[in-house]
Automatic annotation (TrEMBL):
Annotated keywords: Lyase, Metal-binding, Zinc
All residue ranges annotated as the CENP-V/GFA domain in the record: 4-118
Domain of life: Bacteria
Signal sequence, renumbered to the chain: none
Name the UniProt record assigns to this protein: CENP-V/GFA domain-containing protein
Family classification: Belongs to the Gfa family.
InterPro entries assigned: CENP-V/GFA, Mss4-like_sf
């Protein structure tokens, strides 16, 4: 187990969790796609008692069996939790301050997987810095562009 911290984009909601970074997974279910606006979502599933919310997130019931923590100020999705509780809770890998240690160990809900979005290594890549218009907008706002 490794202690890691995370939170929402605006910084209002913060948490610390003891996680096993090599045991992350990708969920491809249609509910997670809708909840995040993405083609899948990366989760890690630590024991509930190993997660400390320093600022309590907002919650919404996303189905008859589940709820999701999020920040009502910036909209960041922070996880997934079954209403019945259980011993573990999902946290979004992207909400950790440093998501680089995480490694997916499996895919979930593969019946909904969009294969065309999982095979992207052949596509050309561009850095954020190559988009000079966006870089200029950040600098005009008095900030350096985020990574």
């Amino acid at each position: 187990m490794q202690t890691m911290s995370g939170g929402c984009q605006c910084g209002r909601v913060r948490y610390t969790a003891q996680v096993e970074p090599e045991k992350a997974y990708l969920c491809h279910c249609n509910m997670c796609k809708k909840a995040t606006g993405g083609v899948s979502i990366a989760f890690v599933n630590p024991p509930r008692d190993k997660v400390t919310w320093h600022t309590e997130p907002d919650w919404y019931q996303s189905s008859p069996i589940a709820r999701r923590p999020f920040c009502s100020h910036c909209g960041t999705p922070l996880g997934f939790d079954f209403l019945e509780g259980g011993t573990n809770i999902d946290l979004t890998v992207g909400s950790f301050d440093d998501p680089t240690p995480f490694r997916p160990e499996h895919n979930y809900a593969i019946e909904s997987m969009l294969d065309v979005w999982t095979q992207v290594g052949h596509l050309p890549g561009y850095t954020s810095a190559q988009n000079t218009k966006v870089v200029e907008m950040w600098r005009a706002a008095g900030m350096e562009p985020p990574e």
